[in-house]
Amino acid sequence: MSRADGPITVAFVGNPNCGKTTLFNAFTGAKLKVANWPGVTVERVEGETSYEGRPIRVIDTPGVYSLTSYTIEEIVTRKCLEEENIDVIINVVDASSMERNLYLTMQLLELKKPVILALNMMDIVEERGMEIDLHRLPEMLGHIPVVPVSARKRSGLDVLMHAVVHHYEEGPQGIVVRYAPQLETKISQVEAALRNKYGDMDNLRWHAIKMLEYDEEVYRDHPLNLRGIVDYSYEKDIINEKYDYIEEVVAECLFNKEKKAAMTDRIDELLTHPVWGIPIFLGIMALVFFLTFTVGDFLKGYFETGLEYFSQGFLAGLQAMGTSQWLISLLVDGIVAGVGGILTFLPNIFILFLALAFLEDSGYMARVAYVMNETMSRVGLSGKAFLPMLLGFGCTVPAVMATRALATERDRRRTILITPFMSCSARLPVYVLFAQMFFGERALLVAYSLYLIGLVAAISIAYVVHKTGGNEEEDGLLIELPEYKTPNGRTVAIYVWEKVQDYLTKAGTTIFVASIVLWFVLNMGPGGIVEEVSGSFAAMIGRLLVPILRPAGLGSWQIAVALISGLSAKEVVVSSFSVLYGISNINSAAGMGELSQILAQNSFGPVNAYALMIFCLMYTPCVAAIGAIKRETKSVSWTAGMVVFQLVVAWVMSVIVFQVGSMIF
Amino acid sequence: MKLNEGEIGRNYVVTGVLAKQQVARRLEALGVNERTPVIVLNKKGSGSLIIKVRGTRLALGRQIAEGITIEEVARR
Q1: CB–CB of A511/A572 below 8 Å?
Q2: Which has more pLDDT, A153 or A108?
């Protein structure tokens, strides 16, 4: 063969949550996100590896249950299989639920491309006392190579790549699933018709079967008049017969099937309890935020001391070098204060993502969809829409992308509309700072109340949209609940490290640039460098918004400027305060004291602070989120409308909070 | 009877699936077909439930559960 040394292209294909991405990471050294709930991967991803000097191109695909094309994931995966030059399909199968996983295998075998079965989670199978007949299994699957692996423990990987390099030219032998005689007759008739019109095709039988299933894609690519042969969709019969065959396979190859660990069911009795399910969920979220604040604050002290030393040393160094005054001001008051101030929140961010990683990798996520199904159902969404919302506690951008797992465009848009109201990690510094500054011991309670208000606002908005949008019934909940497992160290580490990196990158890019820009607009006016900040561009712009923000108790140009800057990233609201008031270490006791004193001069008290936090919770998250929403909805006008909507909601809510709050306190 | 009328811990087999075509196809791909054995694991008053089917757990909303008819079988 001419391409004996060329790269081999391999695609990982399998059910959702069967470990494709874990395997992909193991082979390519990539650090893609993995978690224990179906639908983590929504895009195809490419990577490279090699075996015995042979380059191998690896493609990871979103998990699918079947090769039809009804969901976005299925379309992506099927496109990848049809359009790319895939040499070998590695069908990743969760050995602990082989029966369901093999259904996709049966379809892949019909494609007649080389398939290798990677029997994943063999460690779990063994733990449960189950045994798989690895001799009989390949015999029943067209003699394709079957390789037991454990993606998490990284065992069996070399054997798998060995199989790739040596079997990439061999497809499955013979016909694996033979259908009932009348179906087989139909298949031959369609095959004949296809051959007549299109000549010899590689996978004639697959096309014929898909045509009997009324598969739209196949008909679009190969239009064929089958009147008289195919009079109705045989899809149901074909599915049933595949499952019948799988039952035979399972009966012959899988032993001690019923001896399963009942651990998951026992945990579920509590966590998915009809009455206690929701309180437990709220309790778990409260615990997450409690840890974020308390443990985060405990670690924060070290960061502050470090920043203090750095800032002082840096200043002394600059002065010793005889740096000009304005440059010192830019570097110390602008960049160090803005970027450094944000870095001190890293411990809180770290703990939040650590907790979220545990939730995602434990298997609890999918349960939340079930627990919240009734609540979501009342507002016209299925419980599944709650998963992106939960991810929104971390970051709005991946949360918006996760809506791809929802079945209809209508559900997606509605979920995208409400997800930004879930309080993301970037808003955390605002709460940490202002809650501690103005509410002292009750800071934690105040912060948790904001998370709850965000959640309630999201659900209420969905309710209003549902009621005004014609009340039609939502797509019902249908989701697989994975087994619970102890979160994997490597998975959690990758997840948290990526988030910490993102945060540091953001501090070094967006926040860095925003701090510099802010310093300039603060120190420049129409006539060049200004002595008094009140004559600066920033003050001029800010003052325009003061009348609008005054009813919300936010009527100062500095706050207006901080809120505008916050559109670049929500953390910038905090770093703006550092730069605006020249506070070097805003997150320390001294920095907070300084800021609250300055604010108090404008009679800015706890009620104003709460209104400010409400505004930050509700208004447009950041440009990155707007970008993601535009990409996912593919509509500029919809996205623009959403931004206006968020600004209006934020304004109305903070006005209500301030006006009512001022009356009470 | 309908799946949402099933009782926790009992064994049933599916006798029919009636749902919007999209949902029906997804159920079929997940292995919920005629003659498939199911066990009800968890159920809420509103009709959402968790079933065990083909070795995996599925959470279903009421609308979908109502479209699945079942009959009880003796414990295997």
Answers
A1: yes
A2: A108
